[in-house]
Amino acid sequence: MTITITAFEQSPDGGKGLARDTRIRWALEEVSQPYEVRLVSFRAMKEPAHLALHPFGQIPTYQEGDLVLFETGAIVFHIAQRHAGLLPADANARARAITWMFAALNTVEPPILELATARLLEADKPWYQERLPLVADRVRCRLKQLSAHLGGADWIDGAFSAGDLLMVSVLLRLRSSGILDEYPNLAAYVARGEARPAYKRAFTAQLAVNTAKSPTG
Amino acid sequence: MTITITAFEQSPDGGKGLARDTRIRWALEEVSQPYEVRLVSFRAMKEPAHLALHPFGQIPTYQEGDLVLFETGAIVFHIAQRHAGLLPADANARARAITWMFAALNTVEPPILELATARLLEADKPWYQERLPLVADRVRCRLKQLSAHLGGADWIDGAFSAGDLLMVSVLLRLRSSGILDEYPNLAAYVARGEARPAYKRAFTAQLAVNTAKSPTG
Fold it and tell me: CA–CA distance from B87 to each of B30, B94, B99 (Å)?
């Protein structure tokens, strides 16, 4: 059955790989599964046809026959469950890898999202300059703990897993802030993720959408 | 094997059920699994012994023989996978229920967390009164979409699932803000969750910890 995902017709980041379809492309590349991409405009994302696939009006979605999924965590998990390469076979190691998937999305990403929201939506507010360091420190609190846990390891719990895929993806959103570079082992961890052939293919594919002359096919 | 979870020695909410151990207690009650609770002080949460279980120095943790997990999403999923009652048997329905687990934690909870953070950590800041409505509106954006999706249904995708358990738990954090009551079907949905015998047992158990005269056993 054909896998079809949705992506931004024009990504707000202009192709830096920060839109969430990159996470799904990366997961599919890791397990060597082909996929098709349907591009969606900002207007179409809020219309009933797309809301029927994604109740929160976002991308990506994942369609495979009758199955329709949203949420990058759930889609990556679905892919990881069906194809070898993203979750360990041992039951306990698998449960720990799933723990890191949730940790990436529910513990590490929220303060990073708050920082992104401040920069995107509150840069014109009178409190912006004074508040930003507070928000950045909340990010640092999590990064410091993550850095201590990772130590000198290549990946977060043994072999590369879906937990690493999501954690690297979440941390990538921080690069432009400069905060990631304050934690050299985390910066190296992210670079290790970006160096994976599957990530490179995913990145190139999303970039091609955003550098195409006509925005939609 | 005995299941042991950790909880706050003294919960910041004084027993309103908002500490995250309640989510785990609820899941275990839904599948009728006994568990033990080890209480942890704020100081102990930041010490090496606890950080070895939970790298981000929080509660709850979950221990069962050699297995150590953290992250409520991962723990609820682990319980749901091993015992009937929290995930549908049909593969597609199961994938959708997992999608709602991630939606609760990665789409609905982040703005609710941002609102809680503002109220907890920025109430003394000069921008607090002006900024709060902006943050509340970000919560409303998600609630409006969730409310439209739920419509008149009892649960979010057919039978009660781990997705509902986490979504109700996340929405409960909003009650004191009054925002939840702006969406009557969501308020009724949360009340439906609270009315479940398993939730009531979980709530009573966490309350008992917080109303005990001496805070630790």
Answer: 11, 6, 11
